[in-house]
Amino acid sequence: MKLIYLAFFFVFINASAQTEELLGAIRGNPKEYKETFYKAKKTKTGFIKGEFLYEKVYVKDSNNEFVEYSEFPSEEKDSKKNIYNKDNQKIESIFYDDEGKVVGKTKFVYLNKNLIEEKFYREEKYEKFIKYDYENDLLVKKTEAYLEDDGSINSSWTYSYEYDANKNIIKETYLNGIQNDVYTYKYNEKNFPTEIYGKITLNHDKEPRLYNKSVYQKYDDYNWTGVYFQDINSDNKIEINYIEREFKY
């Protein structure tokens, strides 16, 4: 029972991370944008948008990075400071609490133009790393690991990536010893995503199970602006939402 609980904990965390990754792919250098979330339901012919849930507005902070408007730092102090090298690559992010105390850092390591490692610190404690491997400047493998106090690895994920001729990701595979997740991507002629399917296989499963699905509906010149997103929530129940995005360029 403990193994199953732990497995579904990882499923929820990984699904949430994937959701953030999908929602965070912003192109065209907009000044700000808004996401509006609705309930939705599945029908015989597709999906139907339901009642309004909530909305989020994102603006750029002093680091020129998008943050949710409710979390936008005051004029007196920033919650994060970025440091760049001579090639304008971000080499360190420093995080502060409300009193200006350093509570965490992320350090970035590059080989030429490619990010090859991130190191995460809570205060001064080294807690996590992510390493990246490339072929022909395309990311093909990512390893994410959480560390014990003695520096040994507590748990880890391995991610692998496959691409089409247009350098779009068409398959992502996640492995951690307890579960195996596979995402498959489809695109239109403009290289916008049209569908993304996520399937999970736990150690006790005989075959993969669909637990995550995105069906894109609308686009502007740079970004998708409407998507139906089916996911498993923290109670292990299927939840479907419709997400609209409005951009100010």
How would you characterize this protein structure?
- The model is unreliable at 1-24 (pLDDT under 50).
- Helices cover 9% and strands 59% of the residues.
- The chain contains one helix and 16 strands.
- The chain has one helix at residues 2-23; strands at 32-42, 47-60, 66-68, 80-84, 90-96, 102-111, 114-122, 125-135, 138-147, 153-163, 169-175, 179-187, 193-202, 209-219, 224-232, 238-248.
- β5 (90-96) and β6 form a beta hairpin.
- It is mainly beta.
- Strands 3-2-1-16-15-14-13-12-11-10-9-8-7-6-5-4 form a 16-stranded antiparallel β-sheet, with helices on one face.
- The termini are far apart.
- It is globular, with a radius of gyration of 20 Å.
**Derived structural class:** mainly beta
Q: What's the main sheet like?
A: 16 strands, antiparallel
Strand segment count:
16
Separate helix tally:
1
- Given the C-alpha coordinates, what overall shape results? globular
Given as residue ranges, the uncertain stretches (5+ residues, pLDDT < 50) are 1-24
Which sequence of strands runs across the widest sheet? Answer: 3-2-1-16-15-14-13-12-11-10-9-8-7-6-5-4
Q: In percent, how much strand structure appears in the residues?
A: over 45%
- Share of helix, binned: under 10%
* Cα-based radius of gyration, to the nearest Å: 20 Å
Mean pLDDT: 85
Order of secondary-structure elements = HEEEEEEEEEEEEEEEE
**Cα-to-Cα separation, first versus last residue:** 50 Å
